[in-house]
Design a protein that fits this description.
Length: about 500
């Protein structure tokens, strides 16, 4: 029975925390669970002197990240980040693939001078021919016939040796084969694979080869494993590895983290990353996206962490990463502000760094600042971070709509409701200086095309898939005008 009096009390929603970059710092001095840190003492308690996973480089990076208050133009500082400890990466040597066949102790059906045709993995092209010199009655005798034979499969040639009743085909070159070999072996008495023999191996085992991997590549694999198995809720990456091989591999990892439209359509989740590294190689070059590298003469100053700690607090507000003055967070600043050391560069070396899109601290007219605030492919850091923020915010808003509405009509009205995720994300991007404003109207410079029900196909209606919502915006790009386009695709 319904009550005559109903009282509902609603409270305002709690204020949301200020959005900040999700920073992960990777230590490679030993495995240690990922944790969130907010102060240096907590970091020292795990990675400081006399600790099992001692890593003073990580301590310095953490100190530098948190200690940018003297020179940053942001109103706040980095106040938390994650650190995970991984084992020290080591190179992996290349290894050859093997295909091992174990025959039973006794066999029958092969007489003296018989030719036997063996098909490997069900492939008519992967075959060997045997000739019996006497009646074959044991697995050992059959295995011996294979000695010195070979076949080709998956881009590799495999050559056989025999021991007892075991035949081992080993690839003649190390490395991963193009394709695997099905664990199947068939023996025939006639060429053309006629008259099969009733001989069934006891076991068949294919082991693919292994490509040689550098320590840097294995580090990337460990980071990917950490993403998959433990924690993928981070975006901005720094590590304690500054060698050229590691910086290059990590930059490629970040570039590959952004899924293509085809991958997204196939169900790949979007967990794109951004890598910040440092180098003391004046000729370092690697034209990859989603990674920024800063040059320094003194790697122990942790210029990458200084740079990130100095500018990252602006996030999600988009600001140029050029004209910033990262502080040496590990120095005693009691006598005054000390920025990271000005590198000693010739004019030619400066030009090469600029050509290679490597950032560095410079001094012009007695003013020190970082030049040029770019990624390794020449794109501006703020443009990449801004575009990533739009993608994340638009996705979050769309899920909010889908999860808070009992149903969304497959109609013009329903399409319009979904489109509010796009419109709101772009409007917020204008407020965050990611998208430019019109100088006269002060409105954001973007357009959104919302499809109509009449434009949907029968298949789309049957599967409740909306036609694409498309948008185009002019990114503020910190003076530099850059256009961005996007598509939002949703199932209702």
């Amino acid at each position: 029975m319904a009550k005559d009096v109903i009282v509902v009390v609603q409270r305002d929603a709690l204020p949301k925390d200020k959005e900040s970059l999700d920073i992960l710092l990777v230590s490679t001095t030993g495995a240690y669970p990922v944790q969130t840190y907010r102060d240096i003492e907590s970091v020292k308690a795990v990675f400081g002197p006399d600790q099992p996973n001692q890593n003073m480089k990580v301590v310095r990076k953490a100190t530098t990240l948190l200690n940018q208050g003297k020179t940053t133009l942001a109103e706040t500082l980095v106040n938390k980040f994650k650190i995970v400890g991984l084992e020290t990466p080591k190179p992996t040597p290349a290894a050859a693939g093997t295909f091992v066949i174990t025959f039973p102790s006794s066999v029958s059906g092969i007489n003296e001078s018989d030719n036997v045709y063996v098909r490997i993995g069900g492939d008519d092209e992967a075959t060997v021919e045997l000739t019996a010199e006497g009646e074959i009655t044991t697995g050992s005798a059959l295995a011996a016939l294979f000695t010195g034979t070979s076949f080709t499969k998956g881009g590799k040639t495999y050559s056989a040796t025999a021991a007892d009743a075991v035949v081992t085909f080993t690839a003649t070159t190390n490395g991963l084969a193009d394709t695997g070999i099905p664990e199947k072996v068939e023996l025939f008495k006639e060429e053309g694979f006629q008259s099969p023999l009733a001989i069934t191996p006891d076991s068949i085992k294919f082991t693919n080869g292994v490509d040689a991997k550098s320590a840097a590549d294995n580090l990337v694999e460990e980071i990917k494993k950490f993403q998959t198995d433990v924690d993928n809720d981070w975006y901005f990456l720094l590590t304690d590895r500054d060698d050229e091989e590691s910086v290059t591999a990590l930059a490629k990892f970040a570039e590959a983290s952004e899924p293509t439209e085809a991958e997204l359509g196939a169900g790949v989740e979007d967990h794109r990353k951004f890598y910040m590294g440092q180098t003391d190689d004046k000729t370092f070059a690697n034209s990859t996206a989603r990674a920024a590298v800063i040059y320094t003469d003194h790697l122990e100053e942790e210029a990458d962490a200084s740079y990130a700690g100095n500018v990252a607090p602006f996030y999600p507000l988009s600001v140029t990463w050029k004209f910033k003055r990262p502080q040496d967070g590990n120095a005693d600043t009691s006598a005054g502000i000390k920025v990271i050391t000005l590198p000693q560069l010739t004019e030619g070396e400066r030009d090469q760094l600029l050509e290679n899109h490597v950032n560095f601290l410079t001094e012009e007219y007695k003013r020190q600042y970082v030049k040029d605030g770019v990624c390794l492919n020449g794109e501006f850091i703020d443009v990449v971070l801004g575009g990533d923020w739009i993608a994340k915010r638009m996705r979050d808003l769309l899920y909010d709509i889908l999860l808070t509405n009992p149903s969304i009509e497959y109609s013009d009205a329903g399409f319009g409701l979904v489109a509010t995720a796009v419109l709101q994300a772009l409007a917020e991007a204008v407020d965050n200086n990611i998208i430019a404003r019109d100088s006269e109207s002060k409105s954001g410079i973007f357009t959104v095309v919302i499809p109509k029900y009449a434009e949907s196909t029968e298949e789309q209606r049957r599967n409740r898939v909306m036609p694409d919502i498309t948008w185009e915006a002019q990114l503020a790009g910190a003076i530099h005008q850059v256009k961005s386009k996007g598509v939002l695709r949703a199932s209702l």
